Amino acid sequence: MPKRYHRRRKTRSKLGLVYIVGAGFMVLGLAAFFMLRDTASATEPQPASRSVTPVEVNYPAPGLSLQNVNGQIESLADYRDKIVLVNNWATWCPPCKAEIPTLEAYYQIHAVEGFVIIGIEAGGRQNDVLQFSQEHGITYPVWFDLESAAINAFHNGSLPSSYVIDRAGIVRLAWVGEINHEMLEKYVTPLLRED
């Protein structure tokens, strides 16, 4: 074979090797870029919790009566002189569980101002809901709802969902999704200050 052919073959094989090595460096570079980007975003401050903004509404509270975890029947009308946050939730619902400490903390601070939360658990058995409430330190009233009466009364099957009822029995705010402390302070606290 002529020398020229061997040189051409060597040149082609060297070029192929250069391309392979170059492609390898490109892949490593891209991998490093994405790793550094993910590391940087992981070190950025994250919000304590996600929250949606409530919708302002204006309609009479439904006539809802359910059994509480202690076996007594209670009604929304029993709380007519208070600001009431009705929270539809379930023990199996992750965002429902996530917002419980926030709701409990807000309740502890504002109960003296005539604020109450009524947690209505959708579908759980009385003993299970009572045990869950005790384990999670819930001190506000908890009702259980085997037949979805609360979900039907508020025409919303999403969990968690919350509704704020003013002292006159009018639903003023509606949330679908997890609530954080900032949203409670921004939207519910002013209602507590109303005469």
Keywords:
2 domains, 6 helices, 195 residues, 8-stranded mixed β-sheet, 8 strands, globular, Glutaredoxin, alpha+beta
Describe this structure in words.
With 195 residues, the chain is an alpha+beta fold. It folds into two domains: 1-46; 55-193, Glutaredoxin. The chain has helices spanning 3-43, 94-110, 126-135, 149-153, 181-187, 189-193, and strands at 55-60, 65-68, 73-75, 83-89, 115-122, 142-145, 161-165, 170-176. The chain has an eight-stranded mixed β-sheet with strand order 1-8-7-4-5-6-2-3. Strand 5 (115-122), helix 3 and strand 6 (142-145) form a beta-alpha-beta unit. The protein is globular, with a radius of gyration of 29 Å. The termini are far apart.
Outline the secondary-structure elements.
Elements: H1 3-43, E1 55-60, E2 65-68, E3 73-75, E4 83-89, H2 94-110, E5 115-122, H3 126-135, E6 142-145, H4 149-153, E7 161-165, E8 170-176, H5 181-187, H6 189-193
Parallel strand pairs: 4-5, 5-6
Antiparallel strand pairs: 1-8, 2-3, 2-6, 4-7, 7-8
User: Segments where pLDDT lies below 50 for 5+ residues?
Assistant: 27-49
In spatial order, strands of the major sheet run 1-8-7-4-5-6-2-3
Helix content: 40-55%
CATH architecture grouping of the largest domain: 3-Layer(aba) Sandwich
Instruction: Tell me the domain tally.
Output: 2
The CATH topology assignment of the largest domain is Glutaredoxin
General form: globular
* N→C terminal distance: 103 Å
Question: How many strands?
Answer: 8
What pattern of helices and strands is seen along the backbone? HEEEEHEHEHEEHH
Rg = 29 Å
| Overall mean pLDDT | 82
Taking the sheet with the most strands, its summary is: 8 strands, mixed
Count of helical stretches: 6
Work out the strand percent. Answer: 15-25%
Question: In CATH's first tier, which class of the largest domain applies?
Answer: Alpha Beta
Structural class: alpha+beta
